[in-house]
Amino acid sequence: MPLLQKYNFPATAFITDLYYREGFTWEGTQALASVGWEIGWYTLKHTPADSLQRSDIVDDFSQAAPLFESHGLLTPTMFASPSGIHNSLSREVASEYFLASRTMETGGGNQGGPSKRVGVYPRTKPALTAHDVNLSSTP
User: Fold this and answer.
1) 44: buried, middle or exposed (CB in 10 Å: 19+, 13-18, 0-12)?
2) b/e per residue, 59-85, with b = 16+ CB within 10 A?
3) Which comes out higher in pLDDT, residue 107 or 20?
4) Any residues with CB less than 8 A from the CB of 46 and at least 6 apart, and which?
5) Separation of alpha carbons 43 and 46, rounded Å
6) What angle do CA 75, 40, 92 make, to 5 degrees?
7) Domain ranges in the chain?
8) What's the pLDDT at 8?
9) I need a surface site. Which of 5, 17, 98, 103 has the fewest CB within 10 A?
10) Is the CATH code 3.20.20.370 the one for domain 2-134?
């Protein structure tokens, strides 16, 4: 974090309920937010969004705002799908709760093989935008 601060370089952290993840604290998350980091939602318990029914996704996403607010953080506006795994339903529901969702275009992350691109799905339409980053040639 000090190196990022030195060069005034912002970053994003996507978090779950911190009681689920060892080594993370709400105080630490508040410190990141206070120096300009964007704090986004990563599901309550790191559940791949494509494995859930609509009601389960809604239940998960609807807990983000109250959880963040209860710890003095702004309501998250971004969502990242755990392990990059997503489907059209999870993107659709994410668009109801977040301004955009970021995910690996091919899904799978470290569980299902190499991912090719980072996709940004804006709230207004569930389609890739110019914000996509092609990682296929990155070492």
Assistant:
1) middle
2) ebbeebbebbeeeebeebebbbbbbbb
3) 20
4) 16, 20, 21, 82
5) 5
6) 90
7) 2-134
8) 80
9) 5
10) yes
In the predicted model, what is the mean pLDDT of residues 7-35?
81
Distance CA 106, CA 128 (A): 12
pTM over cut 0.85: no
Give yes or no for a contact between 105 and 85, defined as CB atoms under 8 angstroms apart.
Answer: no
At 54-76, the pLDDT tens digits run 999 999 999 999 999 999 999 99
86, 97 Cβ separation under 8 angstroms:
no
In angstroms, the CA 75 to CA 93 distance is 16
Two structure tokens written together for 18 = 């911190």
